[in-house]
Amino acid sequence: MVTKLRIRRCKSRHRQAEEQKYQCDRWWITSLLEFKKYPSSDIQALNTMYRIYNFTNVASRVVTIKRNSARFVNILKIKETIQRLLGMNSNELPYAHVCQVGDPVLRGHAMKIEPEVIRMADFQKVITHLINVMRAYKSYGISGPQIGLPWQIFAIECTEEIMEGVEETVKKTHEMNIIPMTIFINPELKVIDYTPITLYEGCESIRGYSAAVPRAYEVEIKALNASAEQFTWRACGWSARIAQHEYDHLQGKLYIEKMDVRTFQCTAWDKINKNKGKMRLSYLPKKISV
């Protein structure tokens, strides 16, 4: 009789613990819905974000547990989860477009990715997708949060083709150079030269606007590459600026927090006046990605 009573108490405590965890994980969704009634599409988006948030927390933990542990989750199960959550369907993550300011994913602190996850074929597809979106927007860089993934990953690139379209005076003043495609995963940034250099910046997540932003002249980054191998990258001038911009995205920060507010401007204000306001701003890529 005593044994049965203990079993019942254990089951009851287990149910209570599970319920508390469930309520804790979803508090942010319920609190948002209390303040504002979202359309069904927004509720679906919040639920999708919760699934991704929950998965990334689980995936980043289970791969660090020793394989002889009874709690270790089979790596194949993780792969199935990635494939289900990260399908290339336009209604699922990762997006083929860039998220805009206001999206909660741009304001959260991105989570680290374990090497075991990086080496998965499905995660490699995510890296390829990230690069394709960046090139489609003809951007110098892009981060995971910008395509809806709250993970510590970003890519930067400045091709010879892009450089050809930049004026020589701008190249010199910005200290622009060709940057080969570089993937940074779980980056740790260290400022080498704190000398502030103020130049205008734009961001695909605040499309149509720019502002003067001070950045450190030289930085060093230690990160994992697409093969989960650690490397050290050092740069100054324009390259360092791009890296700092993308690194900020992983911290939930945007350039508008560091800009000179008096310089914040719509990049097409002159054209808008000339066309008497008859202009539209598109959030689509500048070209279709392959």
TrEMBL record:
<dbReference type="Pfam" id="PF01327">
    <property type="entry name" value="Pep_deformylase"/>
</dbReference>
<comment type="similarity">
    <text>Belongs to the polypeptide deformylase family.</text>
</comment>
<keyword id="KW-0378">Hydrolase</keyword>
<dbReference type="GO" id="GO:0005739">
    <property type="term" value="C:mitochondrion"/>
</dbReference>
<dbReference type="GO" id="GO:0046872">
    <property type="term" value="F:metal ion binding"/>
</dbReference>
<dbReference type="InterPro" id="IPR023635">
    <property type="entry name" value="Peptide_deformylase"/>
</dbReference>
<comment type="function">
    <text>Removes the formyl group from the N-terminal Met of newly synthesized proteins.</text>
</comment>
<protein>
    <recommendedName>
        <fullName>Peptide deformylase</fullName>
        <ecNumber>3.5.1.88</ecNumber>
    </recommendedName>
</protein>
<dbReference type="GO" id="GO:0006412">
    <property type="term" value="P:translation"/>
</dbReference>
<dbReference type="GO" id="GO:0042586">
    <property type="term" value="F:peptide deformylase activity"/>
</dbReference>
<keyword id="KW-0648">Protein biosynthesis</keyword>
<keyword id="KW-0479">Metal-binding</keyword>
<dbReference type="InterPro" id="IPR036821">
    <property type="entry name" value="Peptide_deformylase_sf"/>
</dbReference>
